[in-house]
Amino acid sequence: MHEKHTFKALIFISQRVDYLKERNETRDSIDQALTQWVIAADAIPLCLPNVLSEDMLNQLLTQLKPDGIILSGGNNIGQYLQRDSTEHFLFNWALLNKIPVLGICRGMQLIGKLSGVSLISVSGHTAVKHKIEGILNADVKSYHDKVLENVPSGFNALAYALDGHLEAIKSTSDWPCEAWMWHPERETPFNSIWLARFRSLIKENK
Question: How many other C-beta atoms lie within 10 A of the C-beta of residue 120?
Answer without folding.
Answer: 11
